Amino acid sequence: MKLFTRLYDMTLGWSRHPRAPQYLGALSFAESSFFPVPPDVMLMPMTLAKPQRAMYYAALTTLMSVIGGMAGYAIGHFALEWVQPLIGEGGRYAHAYEKASGWFNDWGFWAVLIAGFSPIPYKVFTISAGALSMSFFPFVLASAVGRGGRFFLVAGLLAWGGEAMEGRIRRYVEWIGWSLVVLAVVAWWMIRKQ
């Protein structure tokens, strides 16, 4: 069964939709404050579908991600009790929240910058920054640099690879997809063991 190939083709189809940029912007905003799906799942196929628009897509993703990060900061600063069931003991993001809080205590600005590239969900960092009352301007600056670095790198590499990159991804998408599933299961198992 070619599950990931079908998903890849479906996502490429969505990326060519006339409203795809609005969807990308909304996803980028939501992922930084409350939604679990990273914007890369739309940024990548949109860049492959229209490589000449790669930098526009990266800029849009960065801008909306930073604005969404500000919303996450506000949630952490003003409404932490709303997300307490998710980040409190036994919550879905409890371990990630503890790790993010530790990073803030140790590195502050640099924790947010590095979080832009981290596999830990970015919303955990934005909410943690607000909850720990990190200075707002350095938070926004670190978010812009970290997230921008990630999204411009992804879009730039895919645009540079062009149609050949799309062909390579299509050829290996099943292997990549199932490898990521295995890695996610192993990571989940290791976290649960601790």
What is the number of independent domains? 1
The H/E string reads: HHHHHHHHH
Radius of gyration: 17 Å
Gap between N and C termini, in Å? 35 Å
DSSP summary: helix tally: 9
Q: Give the biggest beta sheet.
A: none
Computed structural class = mainly alpha
Report the principal-axis shape.
globular
Poorly predicted spans: none
Report mean pLDDT, rounded to a whole number: 80
What's the total count of β strands?
0
Strand content: under 5%
Query: Residue share in helices?
Result: over 70%
Organism: Thiogranum longum
Protein name: Membrane protein YqaA with SNARE-associated domain
Keywords: Membrane, Transmembrane, Transmembrane helix
InterPro entries: DedA_domain, VTT_dom
